[in-house]
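Retry 2 of 3 after timeout on previous attempt. Resubmitting structure tokens to design endpoint.
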């Protein structure tokens, strides 16, 4: 594997006449990744999904544009419904199954709470998986984002573990398989003197205290989830924990409909003397049951640890070259705190100046360990006090000035400037040294890592120098640089500092459009309209019937993705053939044997050696089993304990 290249913060040399970039995407703030082309192709799938939904569903109600917030909202619903379910559920090995079965006839509200608890948990896992996959293919896991990725993996593991233990508490045949699989793995660890698997040989041997311990852990894990969630988003500025009220209402109503139409049910009651036959399971949480019946505990541990470790190490394994980071020039900073307010990742801190230095009491400092290189702080800084190595703002000002100054007189209004986000529809455009692209005639393109990099004064400056129009192109759904699209729109509308002054550029069009990589033709169409001095086309109003149809299709698809995997067949299940389980816990016979003499004593003559030392040891316990006159087992079981003086344990399964 190639080593990860350290951050190179050397400035990119930008001539006043030539751009050193061949493509717009050369200024991407995203680091270079292994398998980048494959990730981009997969990411386009999510982008196209959002583009398909956008005409009929607003961003506020689009579940795929806020999958993390949807998962958090489902977690709260699952938590509250689980607490309310305790009014009917009995956490006892002897009454758990009956208390849940009684809900079918005895309590409509209790059955609803059970179904709501189950489907909100399934929906939470569904959106966790979708959110994690989207973050992976979008490359939002490297550099400072490693903490969010690792904490996200911890969150997913805790959610899965809580669901796994939750199915144990039903104490049906699914719980029977869960308990035996858990015991098989725990028996590998040197924590238990008596293997847990022996507790599940008969119905009478099941430990009621162990069942209550599982219930206690199931109730305690949500506390760990809350801590992991806080760590997951602690580095984000103005993070959104939950969905809006409207979206939360849609989620709750959808879960209510699912719970009423397809209520949660139990399998047959657990019976340790019976092998479960055909069975349905919740694939979101019980999918490991496909292999647990066929593999040994040690193998299961290896697969689990290798899988979790591999996913956790993604930020270090896939990164080839890290992103460049910005830094603040203290001498230029006026202490306005605008970059501090705008930074999406809380990477900027206001520090007090030394007495007598500078023109303000404080100045901004960028923490490179948190900076993702989005460049939004560049667009926030009036005195150009933020140094961005990949795209130096002062050099870009000079390039724009030289470009417009060199235009022949009379043609000054024939060229337009396009500030092109590297993640937008223009990310793949090729450029010459003058910023021209054959795909956008009449434009000089300034590639930027994010539309938030563009300071409004730079737009005004370009127009004063003779630009006939300015086009700011940003990405759209779930931008790689958080808040960049939102801050740009508010700056150009005069709603956020630094504000664009429309009165300074009256008569010259300044358009801000949001287009993802899949909308290249739309970018060319809008660029052509600007060159023809046409008006920016208004967004077409989608007919109501289409909006309702699209919303119904999305809700139906999500409902099916939640319900069907939650009650799917257990494939590759164990063949329910009869078998005999032989188990014993028996101490071997104590015998005396002479302790081995040391090498020093062996060199002495027999009459010069000391008295022989006898020690008492336990011999192995031997087991022989015949069936129909045929010997099927012949083994010896060594004594247990650290000093091999304990009890011999055995548990053998003999298929018939």
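Retry 2 succeeded. Sequence:
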């Amino acid at each position: 594997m190639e080593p990860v290249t350290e951050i190179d913060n050397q400035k990119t040399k930008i001539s006043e006449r030539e751009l050193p970039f061949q493509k717009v995407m050369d200024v991407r703030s995203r680091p270079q990744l292994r398998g980048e082309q494959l990730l981009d192709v997969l990411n386009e799938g999510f982008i196209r999904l959002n583009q398909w939904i956008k005409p009929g569903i607003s961003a506020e109600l689009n579940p795929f544009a806020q999958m993390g917030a949807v998962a958090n909202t489902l977690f709260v619903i699952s938590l509250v419904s689980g607490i309310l379910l305790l009014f009917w559920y009995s956490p006892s090995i002897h009454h758990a199954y009956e208390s849940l079965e009684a809900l079918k006839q005895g309590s409509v509200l209790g059955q609803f709470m059970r179904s709501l608890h189950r489907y909100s948990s399934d929906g939470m896992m569904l959106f966790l998986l979708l959110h994690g996959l989207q973050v992976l293919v979008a490359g939002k896991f490297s550099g400072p984002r490693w903490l969010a990725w690792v904490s996200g993996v911890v969150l997913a593991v805790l959610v899965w573990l809580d669901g796994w233990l939750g199915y144990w508490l039903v104490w049906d045949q699914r719980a029977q398989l869960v308990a035996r699989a858990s015991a098989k793995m725990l028996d590998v660890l040197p924590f238990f003197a008596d293997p847990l698997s022996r507790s599940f040989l008969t119905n009478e041997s099941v430990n009621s205290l162990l069942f209550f311990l599982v219930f206690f852990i199931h109730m305690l894990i949500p506390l760990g989830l809350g801590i992991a969630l806080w760590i997951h988003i602690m580095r984000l500025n103005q993070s959104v924990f939950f969905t809006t009220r409207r979206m939360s209402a849609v989620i709750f109503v959808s879960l209510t409909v699912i719970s009423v139409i397809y209520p949660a049910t139990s399998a047959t009651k657990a019976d340790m003397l019976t092998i479960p036959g055909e069975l349905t399971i919740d694939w979101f949480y019980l999918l490991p049951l496909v292999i647990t019946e066929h593999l040994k505990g040690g193998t299961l541990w290896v697969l689990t640890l290798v899988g979790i470790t591999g996913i956790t190490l993604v930020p270090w394994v896939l990164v080839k070259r890290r992103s460049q980071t910005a830094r603040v020039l203290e001498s230029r900073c006026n202490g306005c705190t605008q970059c501090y307010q705008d930074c999406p990742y809380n990477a900027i801190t206001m520090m007090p100046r030394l007495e007598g230095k500078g023109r303000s009491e404080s100045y901004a400092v960028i923490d490179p360990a948190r900076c993702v290189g989005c460049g939004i702080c560049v667009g926030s800084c009036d005195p150009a006090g933020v140094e961005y190595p990949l795209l130096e703002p002062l050099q870009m000002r000079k390039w724009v000035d030289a470009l417009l100054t060199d235009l022949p007189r009379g043609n000054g209004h024939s060229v337009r400037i396009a500030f092109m986000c590297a993640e937008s529809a223009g990310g793949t455009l090729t450029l010459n040294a003058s910023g021209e692209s054959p795909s956008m005639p009449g434009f000089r393109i300034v590639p930027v890592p994010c539309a938030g990099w563009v300071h409004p004064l730079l737009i005004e400056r370009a127009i004063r120098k003779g630009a006939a129009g300015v086009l700011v192109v940003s990405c759209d759904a779930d931008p790689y640089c958080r808040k960049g699209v939102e801050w740009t729109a508010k700056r150009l509308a005069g709603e956020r500092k630094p504000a664009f002054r429309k009165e300074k550029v009256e008569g010259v069009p300044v358009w801000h459009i949001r287009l993802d990589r899949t909308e290249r033709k739309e970018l060319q169409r809008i660029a052509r309209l600007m060159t023809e001095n046409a008006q920016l086309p208004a967004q077409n109003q989608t007919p109501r019937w289409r909006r309702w149809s699209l919303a119904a299709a999305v809700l139906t698809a999500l409902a099916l993705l939640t319900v069907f995997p939650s009650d799917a067949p257990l494939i590759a299940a164990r063949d329910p053939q009869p078998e005999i389980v032989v188990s014993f816990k028996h101490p071997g016979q104590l015998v005396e044997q002479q302790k081995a003499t040391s090498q020093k004593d062996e060199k002495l003559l027999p009459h010069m050696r000391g008295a022989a030392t006898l020690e008492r040891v336990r011999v192995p316990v031997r087991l022989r089993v015949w069936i129909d006159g045929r010997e099927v087992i012949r083994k010896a079981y060594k004594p247990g304990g650290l000093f091999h003086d304990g009890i011999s344990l055995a548990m053998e399964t003999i298929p018939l």
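Attempt log closed. The domain at 67-320 is CATH 1.20.810.10 (Cytochrome Bc1 Complex; Chain C).
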